[in-house]
Design brief:
Layout: E1 5-9, H1 16-27, E2 30-33, H2 39-49, H3 60-84, E3 89-92, H4 95-105, H5 110-121, E4 128-133, H6 136-146, H7 157-174, E5 179-183, H8 188-202
Parallel strand pairs: 1-3, 1-4, 2-3, 4-5
Helix pairs in contact: 1-8, 2-3, 3-5, 4-5, 4-7
Length: about 200
């Protein structure tokens, strides 16, 4: 028996990480996140998101390939073993993030990105992508309110986040059977209830 893979997607500040944890607890699923859920992923995450004045100079192509490499390792170490045991897996970001951030946001050809993603995932796709949609300005306010250090992606500004958000919405509208869009500008418990209801139908 094979478990199901459910991905939480959205721009930074959308609340997806919180909802991924709540969903995993509610359905007793394994959980992972990208980038950084493996030893290799930790190195990749630090290189990609570190926000000190000594940031590495990383081309957008290298950025995309590192994100995809992180996913390949996450699949090998965490996702595939769990799914093969019949466990459901909730992942905080998956392939949709690469298309949205490095494709729509950074301007890399999305078809070329898809080819690289297919190599890394061996065709594995989420049974359901849950998109927590939020205006970019509100998302930036939420991130600022946490007081956490701003990472490289967040430094790219509101125009970048608007492109990423539109990328997510484009993907979701093109494949409504595989995407579930929720307005994340509402109470956490309300969002969690809506997500759980949709996932229970799926399971």
């Amino acid at each position: 028996m094979t478990g199901k893979l459910i991905a939480l997607e959205g721009i930074d500040g959308s609340g997806k990480s919180t909802q991924a944890k709540l969903l995993a607890q509610s359905i007793d699923a394994d959980t992972t996140f990208e980038p950084g859920a493996t030893e290799l992923g930790t190195i990749i995450r630090k290189s990609l998101l570190h926000s000190s004045s000594k940031d590495l100079s990383i081309s957008v192509e290298a950025e995309a390939l590192l994100m995809i490499a992180d996913r390949a390792q996450d699949i090998a170490e965490n996702i595939t073993p769990a799914l093969s045991l019949g466990r459901n897996v909730v992942v905080d970001r998956f392939s949709g993030s690469t298309i949205a951030y490095q494709g729509y946001g950074r301007g890399i050809n999305t078809e070329k990105l898809q080819d690289a993603i297919r190599l890394a995932t061996d065709g594995l796709e989420p049974t359901l992508n849950i998109l927590l949609d939020i205006p970019a300005d509100l998302a930036m306010e939420r991130v600022a309110a946490t007081g956490k250090q701003i990472d490289r992606m967040e430094k790219l500004g509101i125009d970048f986040l608007n492109r990423v958000r539109q990328g997510y919405l484009s993907m979701a509208s093109a494949n409504p059977d595989n995407w579930y869009i929720l307005d994340s500008d509402r109470p956490i418990d309300d969002i969690a209830e809506l997500i759980l209801s949709r996932v229970k139908d799926l399971l």
